[in-house]
Amino acid sequence: MSTPDRRLMERLFPGPYSQQRNISAAAAAPVGGGNKTLKGIIAGGITGGIEICITYPTEYIKTQLQLDEKAGKYKGIGDCAKQTVQQSGVRGLYRGLSVLVYGSIPKSGVRFGAFEQFKKQAVDEKGNLSPGARLLCGLGAGVSEAIFAVTPMETVKVKFIADQRSANPQYKGFAHGVKAIIAAEGIMGTYRGLTATMMKQGSNQAIRFYVMETCKDWYRKGDPNTHVPKLIVGLFGGFAGACSVMGNTPLDVVKTRMQSLEASKYKNTFDCAKQIMVNEGPKAFYKGTLPRMSRVVLDVGITFMIYDSFMDMFNKVWP
Questions:
Q1: What's the pLDDT at 95?
Q2: Largest CB tally within 10 Å, which of 38, 54, 255, 284?
């Protein structure tokens, strides 16, 4: 097995012998680089709130299809949307939105802030990331958001949506739902599926940031100061999102099942994957792929466009 690049690991995890070089690199860094982590947190948080309001209905349909198991209540994306609107009106497609709005702001803030922090440590003297650094920075961003924001938010969201499917819904709203979950299962009840979520978010962001940074580097021809038009950023983001969907939809299905109201029937993440394989077959791991693909391509494209726009604005007014 190949060993990680020593210089890359020293930049990500600096020791006493790397301090002098870090000081020299900082002197050559662009003005305002020291504020990039904070800028990333703020710009990422704003981006997350805007993005989820645009794309939530596709997230709702994806979750419904993944929770469908063998019941076969829905024949597809269109049928799921049709039944939801017939039973609950158009507002039914936005059931649980408040949970994601509350969660998307810190999630996106943690993701981009962590990426900017890791990137600041990993860039070379010219300000570029090596392929390995792109992957590691994205992985670190994904694991960070999984621990600090995504797992509790996703658990509550999935329980809200699953609760709507029952004959007698338990939750009356966001605050009541969170209170009921914690009362019944404790604070760890909001951390169901942490392992699956870390695997999913880590691989998600590793793929997305790797593809995104690689595409940007290709467009810039190695010059980090070259401006990338926002439309191009959106196209690169959509492509990065599509790559991540194909790479980790099975993990997303397992995570969704582990966070549902019936999660107690699974011993752990790996038992959940085993039961899905045995009881439903390998195709079940790709349930909801099409609606997820439609959501993620739009989601990631919009996210990177909005994020880059805010970062450009911050760099002008906040040196």
A1: 83
A2: 255
Alpha carbon distance 22, 18 (integer Å): 6
| Spatial contact of 259 and 192, defined as CB atoms under 8 Å apart | yes
CB–CB of 255/154 below 8 Å?
Answer: yes
CB 148 within 8 A of CB 198: no
- State pLDDT tens for residues 210-220: 999 999 999 99
Question: Distances from the Cα of 294 to the Cαs of 135, 209, 290, 302, in angstroms?
Answer: 24, 19, 6, 12
Most confident of 168-172, 256-260, 311-315: 311-315
Q: What is the per-residue pLDDT for 31?
A: 45
Across the chain, what does the average pLDDT equal? 83
CA distances to 58, 125, 231, 245 from 298, in Å: 10, 34, 13, 12
pTM above 0.90, yes or no: no
Handedness of CA 171, 65, 256, 54 (dihedral sign): negative
For 120-157, letters b (16+ CB in 10 Å) and e give bbbbeeebbbbeebbbbbbbbbbbbbbbebbbbbbbbb
Q: Give dist(CA 167, CA 309) in Å, integer.
A: 45
First to last CA, the chain: 43
Q: pLDDT category, 48, cuts 50, 70, 90?
A: very high
Cβ contact 130:124 at 8 Å: yes
DSSP string, 122-185: H--TTSPPPHHHHHHHHHHHHHHHIIIIIHHHHHHHHHHHHHHHSSS----SHHHHHHHHHHHH
